Amino acid sequence: MTFLIRTFVLLSLLFIGWPQLTMGQTIYTISGRVTDAATGEGIPFASIAVKGLTNGTTSDADGRYKLQSKQLADSIQVLSLGYQTRTYPLTGAVTQIIDAQLIATATKLQEVKVYAKGGDPAYRVIRETVRRRDQFNPAQLSAYQYDSYTKIEGYINNFGQKRKKNRRPGPINRLLGKLPSITDENGLPAVPVFISETFSNFFARSKPEKVKEKVLKSRVTGVGISDGGLIAQLTGVSFQQYNFYRNSIYLFLKDIPSPIGAQWETVYTFRLKDTVAVNDAVCYEIEFTPKRASDLAFTGTVWIDTLRMALAQVDAHVDKKANINFVDELHIEQNWETLPSGLRFPTQTQVTIDTEQPTPRAPGGLVRFFSTARNIVENQPKDVGFYDPSIELADDYRQADPTYWKSVRPDSLSPSEWRAMQVVDSVRNVPIIKVAGEIIKLGVIGYKPIDKLHIDIGPLLYSYANNNVEGNRFRLGMRTNTGFSRKWLLSGYLAYGTLDQTFKYSANIEYIASRKPWTVFGVRRTYDLERIGISADNIGNNSLFAAYSRFGTIRRPYYQEENLAYFRREMGRGFTQTLAIRNRTFEPLFPFAFQPQTRDRDQTIRDSYRVSELISETRFAPDEVILQNDNVRVSTGAVRKPIFTLRYTLGVRNLLGGDFTYHRVALTMKHSFRMGVLGRSYYSLGAGIIPSTVPYPLLYTPLGNESVFYVGNAYNLMNYFEFVSDRWATAQYEHNFGGLLFNRLPLLGRLKWRELVTAQVLVGSVSASNLAMIPGTDAQGRTVEGFNSLGRTPYIEVGYGIDNIFKVLRVDAIHRLTYRDNLTRTGIPVTPFAIKLSGWLSL
């Protein structure tokens, strides 16, 4: 979530589907002519640059130039090979004319040897820069820290343009035309919808690799957004770490190769344009472009120090030809400075996102992220425990007066930016905008807040279902928010089925004992209809699939009463420990029975049971960033390192009426990794064992999927409850090529489709003692439904598919390679091949 979560939040503020915003900011224009001081003739291809910035241009064949910049410094530099470099002062005027006269120099240029046979000398420079990466990469520091200022701005514009035949603007454009606005650089109205400023201390260390951001002050103003802690964390510098010395830049859940990374020669074409002065150093100015326009790669310019072959500046963008959804252009500008240790460090970064226009006359949108690093301290690592949690809010982070912000801003705000801060408050208070914000939040979060009662009603996704046991199922849920308490969180639901005419319910109380480290206690009581093989333990956090499983024909249903008490604590960076005691019942609504173990005195065949369990779950996610929003914590996911989960369950007989003593151990690992230009792979591994004799509902049931939808953590051609195991191992793999093939095909390249492959394998077995627990008939003489187990042959399914169809759809073709004749064993038809659909909103 990283960057993706934060960007989706901001784009939702722009009313998703309104693209390409432009900010209202002054554009300074400098023009003139560069001539030879002796002859008066124009000097072609002279370099003109604003001192200390990446903005620059070159003169034409007659020596004339025009330079536009959103920022100004005190002077411009004019240089050309064979002439002395001249510096001319700048004023604060919006338009300036500066004619430069250069004096020819008799000094010989230093000899440059090009060792490659032919080709542009830029390749020699980049090759040497890549070779010296470890000498200047800030990741080589044992630790570093700095003061960070970040600013994020979002605007809607381009809604006042004339339509053909003088037709009236559309309803959205008419609405936008009535809102308070500012004037952009083209003289057109622009509506600011989001502005934030954040000042924080950022810390990082290696061995072990850890980062921490302490948000000292933050202020956020936006449509549909309150100045909450979650937004303050999303707008900090933690999600704006762009190190071009790495092999790739991670943006929008995509890995974009760096022009000075390991794949530089495979992905890019380079051209040495000139030598210019940057931050008092003479640098090679080198342009780079992707070898294939459709590749997900940067286009732009790097400035390399001629003496040290180190990165000084970079100006890179990804245009709409690349395979990124909803983005017309992504632009990164970054300045690098030399530290006392000799390493380079990015001290100023600006990221601009132009959203894609769905129609030619649609409103436009733009979001700009700006961050600076000052007061950099090298090689003074803190204790490992200091970096937990990775993002922390100061107690008074909301309290700051205008004088404070003036003191921490690297530059004063322009008049248009001041105006935008004032206007955005007016925009957010327009009644129709308030309503639109509430609708967006309800659709994304699923809860409707009732402010007077300090509760949220929902989630909307579970409100209704229909199945053969309950008939029409209606459910009403609620939870308290921070207006109720910052320590206590109450939640629950009440459900009713019109066919079974039974009330179901859940009530949960959670107490936050500490926020640092995060420590909670909780109790829950639930009574509801469940089905074997589809439980919260194996569905995970797939809420959409959990809601869908309530529809249709429910086979092997049962009622369950569950009582749970738990304790959860963050033990250190990445380590989370959960301890729980759970007591639950099994009340089947289908023919079921089991024969108690031979050592039990009571050998009566039974059809229901109760279990009491002690549960220990250890989760290790060293690369995961957790955001804390008042009483709720949100994971942004892991990028480079795997996530491990070890869960041990001990069933205790006679504890709270428990009928069995048993053990269950399960270990899972999830990870993803980049395979260069080939795309990204995702995989998960799991294994477990139940070395005890228990009824089959307590064994491991892999998650099947009988729906028409593709489910990532399920076996998509396996029926519900098709196999049961007490020893098992699983492997699930997916590789997304990111359009590697389709991008190279002329017609398909425009569609931005992305090809992928999948594979899933399951091995398992059931002990003879667990097989023997199932009698032929129950106490009433009805035939008992048994279960099936895997043989020596593993269950295997493979697939291939296309992602990003219409930017939201995915189609998977899946083949079941083994147990294709399992109909004779289960009585339920097996599907050896299927086409499954799913929807993904990805960038």
UniProtKB/TrEMBL annotation:
<protein>
    <submittedName>
        <fullName>DUF5686 and carboxypeptidase regulatory-like domain-containing protein</fullName>
    </submittedName>
</protein>
<dbReference type="InterPro" id="IPR008969">
    <property type="entry name" value="CarboxyPept-like_regulatory"/>
</dbReference>
<dbReference type="InterPro" id="IPR043741">
    <property type="entry name" value="DUF5686"/>
</dbReference>
<dbReference type="Pfam" id="PF18939">
    <property type="entry name" value="DUF5686"/>
</dbReference>
<dbReference type="Pfam" id="PF13715">
    <property type="entry name" value="CarbopepD_reg_2"/>
</dbReference>
